[in-house]
Amino acid sequence: MKLFDAHSHMHMGPSGLMIPAAVEQTPFAFDGAAIMSTHPKDYDEVDSIVSGLRNRDYRAVPCYGIHPWFLYDVLTSSDEGDWLGELKQRLIDHPDAIVGEIGLDGNRWVEVEQSDESDESIWKRKRVLACPMELQRKAFEEQLVLATELQRPVSIHVVSAWGELFTAFDNVRERMKRKYEHLEMEVIDEKKKRRRTKRKLLPPKIYFHAFSGKAGALPSVRSACTKGNIPLEDVYFGFPPAIKNFYAAKTPSIMKEIGIRQLLLETDLEDARGAWNDLQRGVKGISTALDMEESEVARQTYENADRFYFRPKSKD
Asked: What is the three-class DSSP state of 246?
């Protein structure tokens, strides 16, 4: 029974390329991973890990994008002038790549010196977001537009920023509507009647990695996707055991609401030495939540990963 890690950062870890393997006998076997970049500086490392996996006959997917934790560094670095152009070219050069990991984070803080000298507070430092939310949203929107234009799936990180995500989706949909206005007519029969087609106004497949929303948020999340003409069968969710949310009391009910066909198995780990154990924990957690056999969870999540990463997108 094959397991595919839908969200890995092993290129950033101390062990680099390392094939996750069981220590003792198990019915499962590692079959590959999607390697998520976080910064333009690690695109080459992603390529190296992907090549290493493929050379060993494992399935591997390169993923390029800028993670919100590292966005401010990219935007303020003199070395990263045309980061969007670089990302676009990387995606063009790798037609099998997706866009990820990108997103919004309202809970990533850094401490800075107080700039107001008149402040008599004893506190000389204050907490601010690692990257201002307005800049996060603008960069997120640009990457979503690029994924939509190139028709690439996207892996999204969202923490304490669901309102901003919905705003970003609204803005991208409007931008794409305007872009397609002059292309919306097509011949549909011998009489050359014309109709407007439902073009995708968001990336063709959307994966909410390490989903942190509540069960009550799912209708809004799904609605935001369908408004962009994305079928719910192309919207996926992941719950890595490395994130404490995996063990939250709310998580089993959320998994049930999502359903097995839209769940992806993921580790979100940098150190590949822990990946095998977390892949198994993921299978067990989903199995318990959905009252399913572990073998069936493994089979279905592998099939889901195959649909998301390796099967052609559905036509408009």
From this structure: helix
